[in-house]
Amino acid sequence: MNPTASESTLHIPEGINYECTGCGKCCGGWAVPMTEVDYRRISAVEWSEKLAKFKGRSLFRPLSNQEKSDSPYTHAIKPQEDGHCPFLVENLCFIHSQSGAEAKPSICQLFPYCFNETPSGVYATVSFVSMGVIYNSGKALSEQKEFLITKLNEFKKLFPDHHPNWSQLQLIVGEPLAWPDYLAIEDALFDRLRDRGKSIDMRFLEASRYLIDYATARRAQSGQTKTLPAEGVEGNKLKRLDLNLLIALHRVYFPSAPLGKGEGDFSVASFLNQFFLSYLLPLRFKLASNSFAIDELVALPWPENDNDMEDLLFRYFFSRIFAKLYFGAGFGQLSLIAGFHHLIVLLALLKLQARALALSRGAPAVSLVDLVAAIRQLEKRLGETKLGGYAAPLLELLLFSPGRLKRIVAASH
Ligand code: SF4
């Protein structure tokens, strides 16, 4: 069968580089998911006969129904006590060294390359779990086209059922969005996000403003009289609901227990549970055995004009938007506006989490290492999180208000 136009077009982001730094850090802090084929291949090997450390150890677990839904995976490798994959031996993959690259779980064979099929082709990106990606090491992806095509072919072989459903695309709930219109909107978003003369917070807020204005104009054109919420005049002080939203999402994306402790890694308590729990529990951001009130966090100033940190934040969000991994079939079927606003909340959470990490290690200021740790943790969590049940509709509701976004950005600045 001939490939369709969309399947045959590979889009590669500009300004994103990658080269493996061989640090071994990618193999820790998450429960590596496996397809059924991976599981059958890898679990068929008597690992305990090859290495004493595997004796008597349970290495795999089935995913729960919620974890499996909308996912090509059925099982996961249980991380060992320190959070690393048990197959990481002396900083090398034991499966790879024993049986070759093709014996590794599919996700590890492709890592850190990711592909997302859309109506206008396949969009490539790389995972910000990788230190090579974080530091933008090596050659630009745009110069690795041949290699990326090889990886895309591997991806198609490993994940033959990856055909995300983009037919439900919405600008806001109840308002369908055509794909060509989305692409034009994305160009306008990037125009605003690339404006390096402004802070990244300001660029995101301006992009959000553009989306709201676009939706308002479209409503007016179609003769709708129902208006969209305005920013409001209440000022920048966080409201209780804003803080509840921040804390609930913080609990989902930055769980206080160390990641990779085995059972339950994928069964992230649903956002809905966390949101209602936030009405019962103290309004504090937890980090391992510490917890911080938002005032304690923001008392640590965010480094202004730190080019490395600004550049990392920009590349992280640019890459996610380029790959369409933030709305529609790319993220929980959220509408475009809710998906973009969710990114703005993630930006605020990254800044809060980096501060919590700095405070926990007794540092006098936030530095790049704190932001790197926060981004890597978020990236792992986003890959595992499912917007099950009522979580997506609740997020739609909570993320719609431009005033809330403004207050959240101001509070985390
Ligand atoms: S299976 Fe190998 S490549 Fe994959 S996470 Fe474990 S050690 Fe790393």
Structural features, described:
The chain is mainly alpha-helical. It folds into two domains: 5-158, no CATH class; 170-412, no CATH class. 46% of the residues lie in helices and 9% in strands. It has 18 helices and twelve strands. The chain has helices at 5-8, 36-43, 47-50, 65-68, 94-99, 106-110, 131-134, 145-158, 179-193, 200-221, 240-253, 271-277, 294-298, 307-322, 336-360, 368-384, 391-399, 402-412; strands at residues 10-11, 33-34, 60-62, 75-77, 88-89, 92-93, 113-118, 121-126, 170-172, 175-176, 285-287, 290-292. The chain has a three-stranded mixed sheet with strand order 1-8-7, with helices on both faces. The chain is globular and about 70 Å long. It starts with a helix and ends with a helix. Mean pLDDT is 87; it is low at 1-7 and 259-268.
